[in-house]
Write a structure and sequence with these properties.
Helix content is 28%, strand content 28%. By secondary structure, the chain is α/β, with parallel strands linked by helices. The longest helix is centred in the middle third of the chain and has 29 residues.
Length: 287
Amino acid sequence: MKFAFAGIDFLGGVFEGLLDAGWTPVKLFTRPCDGVYDHNEVIVARARSLRLPIQLSRIRERDIEALQAEHGRDWALVVAGYPWLIKGWKGRAAYGLNFHPSPLPTGRGPYPLFRAVLDRYETWGMTAHVLADGFDTGDILAQEIFALSPRESHETLLAKCQMAARRLAAGPLGRDLPNRWRRSEPQGDGSYWPRATDADRTLDFRQDVETVLRRVRAFGTVETIARLGDARVFVAEAQGWQERHAHTPGAVVHRHRRHVVVAAVDGYVQLTRWSPVPLAEAGQVGR
């Protein structure tokens, strides 16, 4: 099967999984990335090694028409980590499918992993579905569900989703897509989770230690935000413990080199990896 791939490194394993299944890539659609939290250098390098045309601008109907003119209708548009809604593929490609990092219909939206950890889900999943006119609403083609740990972090959940996505691409979808397509199942009612805000990322030391640390784990290297006195900092890593004390929650009670201990309502949170918010961002924190 020929396929055009729309995505970034986030779910680049889907691309590799389809290659493992014997598929032939014909084009890469990707997008500019900030090089901090979004990356596409690996998938771009892979496409260049295969001498594929690469497009950074948003997919338009004329782009799909051009692929149809070159390859007929016997190809698939595969989307994995692409932010824009894609229309116009029906009748011009045999298949259009998207890989989404949630157990749909739960967790539709741009990036549900943070909330999956924050809300203490016991299981999560990766879903492949038919591209539809609404975000993440198409019929389900294949789904893999896996367990989450009480100590789950953004990084461990991301790895689980990436590994599951590649397995789906190399297995049931890469080797049996026509049959899966015929047997696809409607999602029914679901939930849409909007993009996380800076308020979602902000630590509240009036909460208990476990709740604060769960938020740190939920955002991981994407970083949470904390106030230390009059300053704000980005927090990538923290530990903590329960202990009775008389400190005001949020008070800095100890410092040693780069480690800072902050009082929470039922103990202490130690910030072990953090960086100051640049002055330019102090008024509108967002990374």
